[in-house]
Amino acid sequence: MSTTSGSPPVSGRLGTAHILFLIVAAAAPLSAMVGTVPLAFAFGDGAGVPAAFLFAGVTLLCFSAGYAVSARRTGGSGGFYASVADGLGRPPAVAAGYMALLAYNCATIGLAGALGYFTQLVLAAHGLTVSWEWCAAVGLVLTAVLGYREIALSARVLALLMLGEIGVLAALDVAILVRHGVHALPAASFSPHTAAGPGVGVSLMFAFVSFIGFESAALYGKEARNPERSVPRATYAAAALIAGFYALTSWLAVGAIGPDQVREVAGKQMGDLFFGLGDDFLGTAGSTILQVLLCTSLFAATLALHSAANRYAQVLAQDGLLPRTLAAEHQRHGSPHRASVWQSVLTALVLAGFAVAGLDPYADLTTSMLGLGTLGIVTLQALAALSVLGLRLRAGHGHWWKETLAPLLGFAGLATSVWLVVGNFDMLTGSPSKVIAALPWLLPLVALGGLLYAVRLRSAHPLRYRELGTRHTAAPATPDLSPTPSGDRHARSQ
User: Fold this and answer.
1) Please, are residues 255 and 186 in contact by the beta-carbon 8 Å criterion?
2) Dist. CA 94–CA 97, nearest whole Å
3) Are 209 and 421 in contact (CB under 8 A)?
């Protein structure tokens, strides 16, 4: 026997550092610098982008304060599904669970396509001709193997990859500082005129989406040694580390290019901007290392989001919202191995579909899937902040900062981010396609389907309905005060 669905999982393997690497990998620092920052420079407020990263970081630290309260109540597992169940009740939780499943799967598929595309380009630059399909297939096989095994192995692999990509960006930062001195840190980036100048909304959008994945710590509670402490610590540390690193590196890039020239230069060079900086400050070898590590960064992000998607599938299956076979855990590895296989097969089928149709792996696949996944995750972050406020209102008391002001500020910032992403979705995806522009409508449709299914369960299967979200919370889920069939007194008493 390799699986179990009734016995407790193999747990206690992840410490704070392991979880930190898992969630920083999902944010993909090098990929964000290469792919997102030039867009923010070109279409946002130019030299004010570093301030946008700091604002996003402070907002997400506020979100983390409230989310940590939720993580402690839920035992650090279940992610957005458990948090929303605890604060807003079962129907919104089912909607959030299905939205999370869609968002994390789309983000994983989009990153797998990006991995194939950029690996093909890097190999071609060195005289090797390999199709993007084969590059993506190799990455998917490695992801599937690691996703099937224990999460600690993935954490160790991601730690090595993270050290590589953060190391090369740190080397670039140091090289810029050495050459330009204090002029590499222009005060103009944080002046009100620049930081709040034209295009600030676009800069904030790209800043917020660059943090995608940092919130996934709350999915690893069952595999953590001390989830009540390690999950909140990892979330705080990830938000602070990512914000500081993004702000510093983008600030130094502004200093290297020049505050007055950065928008124009970024508009011309786009994805080549940081490779050009690498060639200038680290030499040809440094630029080559940046290119290779971009591929490993995309692989790390694919693996991290694959792991998150698996755990959402497992949690929903445990509550009967997906086939229960997906809830099974490997007896030796303690991994949701069936959910991992399902996610790998789904990714392979979507990649194959795009390949057979002759669609572009980046312009069609990556932009559409990653754009939809990003919007879904930011929406869920806002919903999780709102759930902490819901819990505070229901309890009638709570800590003034962690359970009131911090989640309120986090919700305000994240709701603004959702509005910016929806309003600039074509810019986020870089695609003029009307089909891709219509993708955001999938999220409210999936949410509505989840709400209706929960309502149906409440009337047709009240005992099953009563169990939704409760296995992931330290206290009963938010009471549902709507009518319950009279034949089930237990359900009515909840």
Assistant:
1) yes
2) 5
3) yes
Question: Which pLDDT tens digit goes with each residue over 390-440?
Answer: 888 877 667 788 888 999 999 999 999 999 889 888 888 887 888 888 999
pTM > 0.90: yes or no:
no
> How many Cα neighbours within 13 Å face the side chain of 237?
17
Neighbours of 341 (CB within 10 A): 15
| Domains of the chain and any CATH numbers | 12-493 (1.20.1740.10)
Most confident of 35-39, 64-68, 384-388, 448-452: 448-452
Phi and psi torsions of 351, nearest 5°? -60, -45
Count other C-beta atoms under 10 Å from residue 184's C-beta: 18
* Alpha carbons 99 and 114: distance in angstroms, whole number: 22
pLDDT at 339: 92
Give the chain as a 3 state SS string: CCEECCCCCCCCCECHHHHHHHHHHHHCHHHHHHHCHHHHHHHCCHHHHHHHHHHHHHHHHHHHHHHHHHHHHCCCCCHHHHHHHHHCCHHHHHHHHHHHHHHHHHHHHHHHHHHHHHHHHHHHHCCCCCCHHHHHHHHHHHHHHHHHCCHHHHHHHHHHHHHHHHHHHHHHHHHHHHHHHHHHCCHHHHCHHHHCCCCHHHHHHHHHHCCCCHHHHHHCHHHECCHHHHHHHHHHHHHHHHHHHHHHHHHHHHHHHCCCCHHHHHHHHHHHHHHHHHHHHHHHHHHHHHHHHHHHHHHHHHHHHHHHHHHHHHHHHHCCCCCHHHHCEECCCCCCHHHHHHHHHHHHHHHHHHHHCCCCHHHHHHHHHHHHHHHHHHHHHHHHHHHHHHHHHHHCCCCCHHHHHHHHHHHHHHHHHHHHHHHCHHHHHCCCCHHHHCHHHHHHHHHHHHHHHHHHHHHHCHHHHHHCCHHHCCCCCCCCCCCCCCCCHHHHHC
